[in-house]
Design brief:
- The chain has about 150 residues and is α+β, with helices and mostly antiparallel strands.
- It has two domains: about 1-70, VC0802-like (2-Layer Sandwich); about 70-145, ACT domain (Alpha-Beta Plaits, 2-Layer Sandwich), CATH 3.30.70.260.
- Helices cover about 30% and strands about 40% of the residues.
- It has five helices and seven strands, in the order E-H-E-E-H-E-H-E-E-H-E-H.
- The protein has helices at about 20-25, 50-60, 80-90, 120-130, 135-145; strands at about 1-10, 30-40, 40-50, 65-75, 95-105, 110-115, 135.
- The longest helix is centred in the middle third of the chain and has 11 residues, at about 80-90.
């Protein structure tokens, strides 16, 4: 139920995004989804890829600082209130969301969101107890044709 996300730390200046993306492409690693966050001094490129160990190795060999983080993929109804209902589950279970971003795949009226929780195992248990669909690694990449 837990997915591995790579966080790549980059200088916050023009031209620093293409190099790690090119290194992954040259190694045959396809980026399934990503998010970019910034601070004044650096940016964080968050990536989900099928072969995360290979991607991590490629990036480290290229000189980038990489952190592996656990995230959870959750199906969210693509209707008004879908996200609000999900946040209410977190609130009732006292689950803290550190950050979230959309996954680029969508299926049958449902969107996918990636969440970073302070306690991902507790979050998965609370979601399952509330009959919220948590998408595991195998299912996710199967949907994507990998």
């Amino acid at each position: 139920m837990i997915l591995k996300q790579l966080s790549v730390f980059l200088e916050n200046k023009p031209g620093t995004l293409s190099a790690p993306c090119r290194a992954l492409a040259d190694a045959g690693v396809n980026i399934q989804t990503f998010a970019l966050a910034d601070t004044q001094k650096f940016g964080i490129l968050r990536l989900v890829v099928h072969e995360w160990e290979k991607a991590r190795r490629v990036l480290l060999e290229g000189g980038w600082t990489v952190k592996v983080t656990d995230v959870v993929a959750i199906e969210v109804s693509d209707t008004p209130g879908g996200l609000a209902s999900l946040f209410e589950v977190f609130e009732r279970a006292s689950i803290n969301v550190e950050y979230m971003y959309p996954f680029t795949a969508k299926q049958e009226g449902k969107g996918l969101m990636l969440f970073r929780f302070d306690d991902p195992d507790a979050a998965v248990k609370a979601l399952q107890a509330n009959k919220v669909s948590v998408v595991g690694t195998v299912e996710l990449f199967k949907r994507l044709g990998n």
